[in-house]
Structures are given as C-alpha cells and as structure tokens.
Amino acid sequence: MEMKHHYIMLWKTNIKNQYSYEIIELLISKGSNLNSKNQQKQTPLHFALENNLPNEIIKLLISQGSDINSKNNQKQTPLHIALKKKIPKEIIELLISSKSINSKNNKNKLPLQIALKKEYSKEIIELLVSGKSINSKNNKNELPLHIALKKNKSNEIVELLISKGSDINTKNNQDEIPLHIALENKYPKEIIQYLIAKGSDVNSKNKKNETPLHIAFRKKHSNEIKILLMRYFDIFHLQKTEITQPMIDLFPKIYSFNEDLNNFLKLDDFKDIEIKSNDGKKFKVHKQFLLIRLDNNEKFYQDLSMFAEENQKKLFN
Where are the ANK repeats (predicted)? Predict the structure, then answer.
C-alpha cells in the first residue's frame, strides 16, 4: 500500500477499539499523509473532530503535522468543527492560528461567531478576537457584537468586544444596531450607558421603524433607562404619529415647559414652544430644533446657537 493512501486506514479504524490510538500511531509512523483528503475534503483531523475521537488522538494528529488551516467541502477548518462540537479548551488552543481565526465557512461564519453562539467563556472568546474578525459579518449582516447581545452574553464579553473595536452602529438584516438588541434583551443600565457613551445612534430605526427609545418603552425598561435615552434623543426626528403618550409623560422629568406639551405635539404647524431651564431662563424654541439630548444647560444653549446659525433662524428671544 502506498504511503499516501495510509490515511484511508484512519477512516476504517474502529474508534471504539481500545487499540485505536496505537493503530493510528502505527499508521503515522509508516508514513501516512495526514493532510490527504477524502471525498468530503476532510483530512484525518477534520474526521477525528467530527466523529468525537478521543482527545489523545486529536492531539497526536496535530503534533504530527496535521494542517490546522485546511478546509473541508463546507469550508470548515478544524477550528470551526471543534467549536461546534464543544471540544475542550486545551484542544481549541492547539487549533488557533492567525489564519484559522479569520477563516469563514460556507455560511460566512467565523470561529468567533460560532463560539459566541455556543456559550464559550470570555477566555476562549478573547483568543478568537482579531482586528479582522471583530467587524466581520455573517449572512445575516450580524457582527460578533450583535450575536453576543442576542445570546445574552455577560456584560464583560459585550464590553470586551466593544473595547476590541466593534462598530456599534452597524445594522444587521433587520436594521438593528447593537443598542436595539441590548434593549430588546433587557440588558442592565450599565451596558445601555456603555453603548451610548461609545457613540450608539439613539435615533437609529430598525425595520419596524422603532428607535431604541420605542423598544425601551415596549419592553418596559425602567424610567431611568428611558430618561437616559431621551436625553440624547432628537424627539422631532420622529413623525408626530411615532410619539407616544408614555414618552410625553416622561418629558417633564427632563425639561420644564410653560404650556401643555401634549397639545403642542398635536399641532401640525411649526409653532414655537417656550422652555424654562433650571436656572430660570426662558427660551422660545422652534419645534423643529428642539433636541432631547441635554446633558446640561450650557450644552443645550450651544446646540440652539449652532442650529440658529446654520439655519439662519431666530430660535429664541
């Protein structure tokens, strides 16, 4: 038998047999080509992982020169398979290379994306993160961060992905940015604050025409989270029909108005509204330019001045 065909014997080996390790070791010693492929383009290493062979055999194949970057007919590297099969960390670490962590399978999935769906620990996730993988999309246009938030990953994994450079305003196929998903899955205030602080677009709309603020109300988040979003939210970015009564009810907790805001929002024209700041100053502000993104009075005045200058309109008297 030619040495290049010895790998066939590996498929024939009875994996239940207690002598499997010795048989495979013998075949390797006789010159079996560990990187030859079968009809499914599997190397012996692919096959061993797919069929849950003992870890000792997998380690043997790797130590004897199996190509950890080789792809089968589904474009899977051994690392893809190991992560799907929940192989122990010690094996996964042996399968990691700069090439394998950036390889996509035929479903456009990276090892990092598979690991996030399979509930791996932060330690494994950190090993799989790279400059390329962190913002790579799958077939649903999801980044690893979208997946992590959908799988209700721990705060520390979410923060890890963001700290490694994940784009926080990329939209998936449902036009959701990570902030939409975090609110949909009722993440705590700390994560919502973190996403906003990193620059999440609080005015972004998904395919249901929902902003993060709409989701916060629908999912019955705390008033603390709703008010946090409203402070950065351009309320007149919305159509009149998109402004809900619960939103209106929370406005007095942020601003002081000298007229009935509910009636004001029902108006179709661009009437001015008078706003009173905490220090007693009053401003008449054109409805079109009232921004709910106030951190302090000074910032609010700056916003009004900027829009007045750009639009050459008198916004207050």
Answer: 40-73, 140-173, 174-207
Measuring CA to CA, which residue among 4, 7, 23 is closest to residue 15? 23
Pick the CATH number of 1-106 from 3.40.720.10, 1.25.40.20, 2.40.300.10, 3.30.1490.20: 1.25.40.20
Which letter, b or e, does each residue of 54-75 get, where b requires 16 or more Cβ atoms within 10 Å of its Cβ?
eeebbebbbeeebebebbbeee
Rounded mean pLDDT, 226-234: 77
pLDDT digits (tens, 9 = 90+) for 262-277: 454 454 444 555 555 4
How far does Cα 272 stand from its chain's mean position?
41
Portions of the chain given CATH number 1.25.40.20? 1-106
Phi, psi of 227, deg, nearest 5:
-65, -40
Entry pTM: 0.74
**Residue pLDDT, tens place only, 241-265:** 566 777 767 765 655 444 444 454 4
Are the CB atoms for 92 and 63 separated by under 8 Å? no
